[in-house]
Write a structure and sequence with these properties.
Blueprint lengths: L4 E13 L2 E12 L5 E9 L2 E9 L4 E7 L2 E8 L5 E5 L2 E6 L2 E6 L7 E5 L2
Antiparallel strand pairs: 1-2, 3-4, 3-10, 4-5, 5-6, 6-7, 7-8, 8-9, 9-10
Length: 117
Amino acid sequence: MILRSLPILIAPLIALAGTAQAEAVLSIPLPMGAEASVTRLAYSCDGDAIAVQYINTEANSLAILTLDGAERIFVGVTAGSGARYVSGPYEWWTKGADATLSELMTEGQPRSCTARP
């Protein structure tokens, strides 16, 4: 079955109406061409499990990770080697079965990750 478009829940947005709060969900359809793919992988990162969903279309490369209880959308950017994605202060960089997760606004060491079989 070929998917023609894939609705993706991009980010929960908080709408304020007076003092009441309501959660809104944004859905952006991505056209899925013949070469598009959706892949789910699990990684072990310094003892923690991180699930990643990769969405690759002709025009977009995305990685969706849950960090600190929040789902984050990472966008593919230019990399000299491997696949590099960024979301706010975070960088997710993969090469083969290995990956690193960095918080670019801190001086800490990147987390080392390995894809689980």
